[in-house]
Known about the structure:
By secondary structure, the protein is of the alpha/beta class. Helix content is 38%, strand content 21%. A five-stranded parallel sheet has the order 2-1-3-4-5, with helices on both faces. It has a four-stranded antiparallel sheet with strand order 6-7-8-9, with no helix packed on it. It has a three-stranded antiparallel sheet with strand order 10-12-11. Strand 3, helix 3 and strand 4 form a beta-alpha-beta unit. The model is unreliable at 126-131 (pLDDT under 50).
Amino acid sequence: MNNYSKKILVVDDEKKIVEVVKSYLEHSGYEVYEAFTGKEALYVFEKVPLSLIVLDLMLPDLSGEEICKIIRKKSRVPIIMLTAKAEEEDILKGLNIGADDYITKPFSPKQLVARVTAVLRRTSDDPVPLSNIFSFNNGDLVIDSLKYEVRKGNNVVNLTPNEYKILMTLVKYPGKTFTRDELINMALGDDFDGFDRTVDTHIKNLRQKIETDPKSPKYILTVHGVGYRFEGAE
């Protein structure tokens, strides 16, 4: 990956943190922009074709959650949330409103650079257009990628963040067979600390939620000896 073409916006009201993160990212070859308030962040977002945003949640004017929601109405640029909030509920909230990853303070700058690289690798070849709503089999299964909402028939399906990530990875590449390791790398990231067979559990749970007959799935198909692929006529 040629990092010099990648523009990263770092948003935090603590200037020392911005300086450290900027230094590490620039050392890795990224072009880095700074913002210390929500308004500054949105200004840079409108003016610069960003590749990724590192976004602190606690800002003096707008919250990181508000900024994330505003950006998600216009763009799918990857967002890594940076915050002192470490509760699972806060992390899930951040992921549900559109964050691609979540790092808690205090953090290692090297770890942050690694997460930036991992997120960019997962999203660099993303073929899904903005504002895309996927509808399969005459509305039997509908995925709204902006709202992060999945519906089966007339009912909203409650997916965990990992289930949603795996489903979207499969949907983005219909007909492509993924190995378990590929799904871990593309959907769950390098920091995933489970086993490859954990993917099977996620797939089983997904089928229970989106398939009419989980024992005879028509969306997420098993390719024996290899992995899984997504089928379904839009």
